[in-house]
Write a structure and sequence with these properties.
By secondary structure, this protein is mainly beta. The protein has one helix at about 140-144; strands at about 20-30, 35-50, 50-55, 60-65, 70-75, 80-85, 90-105, 110-120, 125-140.
Length: about 140
Amino acid sequence: MEPAGGAPVATPSNAGGPPTQVEDSYISKTCGFPVLVQASGKIKEIPLPGGRTKVLFPAFSATLTNLDTERQLKLSITGSFHITALPSGSTEIVYTGRNTYDDPVAGRFLLLIGYFREVFDPDFNILEPLGGRGQMVDLCEALA
């Protein structure tokens, strides 16, 4: 759900079977105020040839709660992301559909709707920052 920065949701390897039901929660401090993130739904991880992995989130949703004000957002986050190990040792992550993106280093907690990508070096430093086509909804602003 949030491979960039925040606590990623565990993605069990279940390539041969049906999606796995997952419930996860964590407190994000990205916004400058505490946000309780409660996510639930199904995850399916599909290993692909060439050092690639596709992670699907069918029927996945999250409730975000600003713990200072109790303001809440309920989100459908039924997107996917595609992880590719590049020949250079770097990693490309492509987000498609609806995904949350919690990056405390950059100070951004977003709802991505569309097609976005970024590239990390082997130490997980950003080589190509997040960019793409679609909407980037600022969740910090929506919860303030």
